[in-house]
Amino acid sequence: MKLYISTSVTITNSALRRRAVVLPLTLLLAFSIFFRLSFLLLQSLAFCPSSIECMRWRFVGGTHGPLKMGEEVAKALVAAMDNEGEDALNTIPASFQELVKDITSNTQDIKAFAFNTKNMLLKMEHLVKSSRQRESVYWHIASHGLPKSFHCLSLRLAEEFAMNAVARSSLPPPEFITRLSDPSLHHVVLLTDNILAASVVISSATKSSTYPEKLVFHIVTDKKTYTPMHAWFSSNSIYSTVVQVKGLHQYDWSHDVNIRINEMLEIHRLIQRHNFETIKVKDLEHEVEYEKDLEVLWPNSISLLNHLRIYLPELFPALNKILFLDDDIIVQHDLSSLWNLDLNGKVVGAVVDSWCGHSCCPGRKYDNYFNFTDPTISSSFESHRCGWLYGINVFDLQVWRVTNITAVYHQWLRHNLNSGFVLWQSGSLPPALIAFQGHLHELDPYWHLAGLGYRTTQVESYMIRSAAVVHFSGPAKPWLEIGASELRGLWYRHINLSNESVRKCGITG
């Protein structure tokens, strides 16, 4: 399945978001006003013998009238709630004005009023729910877009690569080539097609490092991004660090590896397509569940660069230990000790627990990823186990190469395919949780604060300051308009806004 997203999505992000937020709030306000006015109207018209008498009840005080009114209203509303079948006997007024007209013209009694009021409120509740769901869809679709300024930067850099010899210069310079495989250095891997995101990761990691001269960054990108990515890092060196940029088209893999990668990507596309078709016909009762299902709309669910992390040993055959970083993170503290960390014979080091304590991982239990109604899943895994986090991971590639992790990953992909895609939702993490089972070394939660790309995340400021790495996992990346405005500054402060290309493309932060 190929997904084409127009850049117009980006242009209309703000308008869509304003419209989607205002509509539910307006409906909720109308809901409360409508209910109050309906009750007061009934009080004023249904039981008052005259307008003068109503005024006397309201301001002078009465005994039997209001009490009787309250009892009758309560009985009518209970009857309306308990007798669903009678709804069909009553038409739903098209507007509040029509309901008022029916009451004042004495064409309906209190029972009919109660049923019609109930039906109008139910209709309004449905509209509020539908508006929230549409707003969620728009919000997730907005995560596909990139600002026009990012496209502008990529085009300018591609032109620079063609016209300027400096932009085509060797990366890294010839005198640093030996560092690319030196086991004594700190090797960092990024798989990304986002130039500025890669720049922020490298800049923040370098500024935070106690030994920046030991850092070696390996960027793997796709063919279309290779030239502008190369031009950027050739023209914008960062301190004394070494940066390598390599395109996927420059790898000479075996025929067998190519077949397995193509099969992997095709199955992930089929999973994404199946889940997308499923949510189109769903009418979910709980917004949280709906939000979880909408993760199928994330662009990384079918991204080759996102799924290629399971082939890190093949991507870097000369390396034994690496630190893998996602491109939507910011490094805030020195990471040097991670390269000296003893993984105790395990393959991957990752954060499991959240900052709230041991076995605390809201939204990251296995039953948040897997379908435990399937006997294969329920018999193999514990539903309340915490899933570990991608984003900042230490990988011992030397140990990985003597395991069957990648083979197990493919085995479960095929099993999900054969089962009708019912074992898990889209994404690279669920099959990785299975494949790396028994090969995990847990890191302290201090290393990784995730979830800053979700709307529902509530993170204390001290947690953000204290975390070694903050991760904008979720749709709301800091470079998008849907990103949290109070957090975007954390990301943009690592961009050189005085750079000519950045300035001319209107990237302001």
TrEMBL record:
Family the entry assigns: Belongs to the glycosyltransferase 8 family.
Membrane topology: Single-pass type II membrane protein
Xref: InterPro entries: GAUT, Glyco_trans_8, Nucleotide-diphossugar_trans
Biological process terms in GO annotation: cell wall organization
Localization per Swiss-Prot or TrEMBL: Golgi apparatus membrane
Name the UniProt record assigns to this protein: Hexosyltransferase
Main subcellular location of this protein, as a coarse class: Golgi
EC number(s) given by UniProt: 2.4.1.-
GO molecular function, one term: polygalacturonate 4-alpha-galacturonosyltransferase activity
Pathway in which the depicted protein is active: Glycan metabolism; pectin biosynthesis
Organism: Lithospermum erythrorhizon
Keywords: Cell wall biogenesis/degradation, Glycosyltransferase, Golgi apparatus, Membrane, Transferase, Transmembrane, Transmembrane helix
